Amino acid sequence: CLFFIATKDINLSLILIVMYVIFMQFLNDFKSNDQNNPNEKENLGKILKEITEGHGIDAAFDCVGKSMIDNYSPAFARDAVIYFYGTLDGVFPQLPIVDMFQANATFHPYSLFNYVEEPNLKIKGTSFVYSALKEGKISPNIDRVYPMEKYRDAWEYLRKPRERHGKIVIETGL
Prior knowledge:
Structural class: alpha/beta
């Protein structure tokens, strides 16, 4: 749920960087120790700068909260945007003002409720998704399909550790 995007100024090609390993290590460290490792901020920022060849990150999609934002903020590119949409760590962040000033970065809190509770935005969003589905631009990742009478089997399958992480569909006949 945490990823970064960087664009190169010359050719505008997108580089999507999924920091899964770093994020998982962070979560493990966070669970085992309430105090942040002072080297994490320097390490993640340095890694992101290296991966982007010094450019830095243009956007961060952050659902973690306070304990993560300081770790990637040293890698902000000019005019970076932080899309903040959750607090997995349970704590709202204190914004890294110095890093934000230096990069002219902005903080954008996001809540799905701001869009689904506004009728016009909800219609626009659902129309976009239905159209993209119909045109084949997007498709759901379906792991398994169960008939309604086997809903308990579907539940048991969901409860177990899985290698695949697609949607579990229960056919209702409607």
